[in-house]
Write a structure and sequence with these properties.
single chain; alpha+beta; 4 helices; 19 strands; globular
Length: 317
């Protein structure tokens, strides 16, 4: 299920570098953040910044709070941790490896840098003069790029049953004056893979990559942590509860009954205040930018990397 513009295309942030390098945008949404960075994401603005900070760790050390994924012995649906061995991204050689106080391992070469977070988050970014950035795009067609990226992550080891819809985001750069003629160049696509478990969308998980015509990964990011099996069972129960007009539906504001609810499993971003995972029913009302999330008690909640777990936001009206 595609959501309104603010929530489209998976968690995707690419920083614009010096010299006018392109940032990412989709047909559904184009936002400009600090420093000219454009953001296309399913996440709320504060979480977009959280992911951006994490992604920038691939280029330079910074101060981020890595979210540990707890291992408390409960049954889990397996996640996926990307690795250098499975990646087609090349840093070039020689490679300088360092590990900072947050446990983030950074491998930097002449062509790019990879950051491996201790919680499984993986980010790879080219440096400005990387040969991979100078090669032409893999294709001029988003669907073809989507298929290539999907096959890539499937071969790498992402569970086939968890691969959800794929969204192509065009990378464009415009040159020229605002008042005069402008030339727009297509630099390629970033394809974002959504995650599903038993048909339920996992809000917060994503895997994206950009390929060039040489078959090399120009950039990529993966965040696909394990999910408690109990939350998936809760999702099934909540889906059944949606069919009872005297149950869940009677506990939320009447205006949401006009649109179908979607049972979604949310989890934390790779950086932030701490780990959380929760099941909600989400509603996308026509004309409203924000998707409304309700817990099993019908209380409207908000998710943020600045807090651990969902925050109540009133009665949802």
């Amino acid at each position: 299920m595609l959501k309104p513009a603010k929530l489209l295309s998976g968690a995707l942030v690419i920083a614009a570098s010096a010299g006018g390098a392109a940032a990412s945008c989709s047909d559904a949404e184009q936002k400009t953040g600090p420093g000219g960075v454009q953001v296309s994401s399913r996440l709320a603005p504060q979480d977009q910044n959280s992911i951006k900070n994490a992604a920038l760790e691939a280029r330079q050390p910074g101060s981020v709070s890595v979210v540990p994924v707890p291992d408390n012995g409960e049954a889990k649906v397996a996640g996926y941790a990307h690795s250098i061995a499975k990646s087609r991204f090349s840093t070039g050689s020689p490679v300088n490896t360092s590990i900072d106080s947050s446990g983030i391992e950074r491998r930097m070469g002449p062509n790019g840098v990879v950051a491996l977070f201790p919680n499984g988050f993986f980010a790879a970014r080219p440096l400005p003069e990387s040969p991979s950035k100078k090669a032409p795009p893999l294709t001029a067609h988003g669907d073809a790029h989507n298929a290539h990226v999907l096959a890539y992550f499937l071969e790498a080891g992402v569970p086939a049953s968890q691969l959800g819809p794929v969204h192509a985001n065009a990378l464009m750069v415009a040159t020229g004056s605002v008042a005069g003629d402008r030339e727009v160049q297509h630099l390629g696509f970033v394809s974002v893979v959504d995650r599903v478990i038993d048909g339920f969308r996992i809000e917060g998980s994503f895997a994206w990559a950009q390929f060039n015509a040489s078959g090399d990964v120009v950039a990529e990011t993966v965040w696909w942590p394990p999910v408690p099996a109990g939350l998936v069972q809760n999702a099934h129960a909540l889906k059944v509860a949606l069919t009872d007009s005297t149950g869940f539906s009677s506990r939320i504001p009447a205006r949401f009954s006009a649109v179908p609810g979607e049972v979604v499993i949310h989890h934390a971003a790779p950086v932030g205040a701490g780990w959380y995972v929760a099941t909600t029913v989400d509603y996308a009302l026509p004309g409203e930018k924000e998707v409304a999330s309700f817990d099993s008690n019908g209380v409207r909640v908000h998710f943020s990397s600045a807090a651990v777990g969902p925050l109540p936001v009133g009665n949802g009206n």
